[in-house]
Amino acid sequence: LQATPPPAGSEITLTTEGGFPQLQAPTREAITEYTKDKVPENRVVLTECIANPVKKNECTSYRSYLLDKNVPLTGESLASADANISQLNEPEVNISFDPAGAREFERLTEQGVGRRMAIVLDENVQTAPNINEK
User: Fold this and answer.
1) What is the CATH number of the domain that holds 113?
2) The domain containing residue 17 runs over which residues?
3) Mean pLDDT confidence for 43-49
4) Which end of the chain has fewer CB atoms < 10 Å from its terminal CB, N or C?
5) What's 83's DSSP letter?
6) 5 close to 21: Cβ distance less than 8 angstroms
7) pLDDT at residue 42, as a whole number
8) 26 DSSP 8-state letter
9) Cα–Cα nearest to 44, from 18, 69, 76, 11
10) What pLDDT is attached to residue 30?
11) Model's pTM, two decimal places?
């Protein structure tokens, strides 16, 4: 994807958020169409909704993520997930895994320091935080 940046004047732009190149477009379909013949077979492009600051349930645009198709950790290993409000009055989700999932999460975070980990629900990236430490 990096080798073929969007053409000038395109509705798709190449951004670098947190040091990671990403495509951004007004619609999910624009990103899907643009990337359909540019993605290796072992990878997939999924998108994240960039929420409207006023109407949180609306997307102002979409951001792309190039992810591995082979998903090492799925919801099947999830023991619980609880939504809360943080001390900073921000929404947060606390998750816990079954023993096998906890070991896999530990392995992934240990090997992924300096990278991002996408949290995906129904083929949509919910968040993709940087892994700063194990």
Assistant:
1) 3.30.1360.200
2) 1-70
3) 94
4) C
5) E
6) no
7) 95
8) S
9) 69
10) 94
11) 0.81
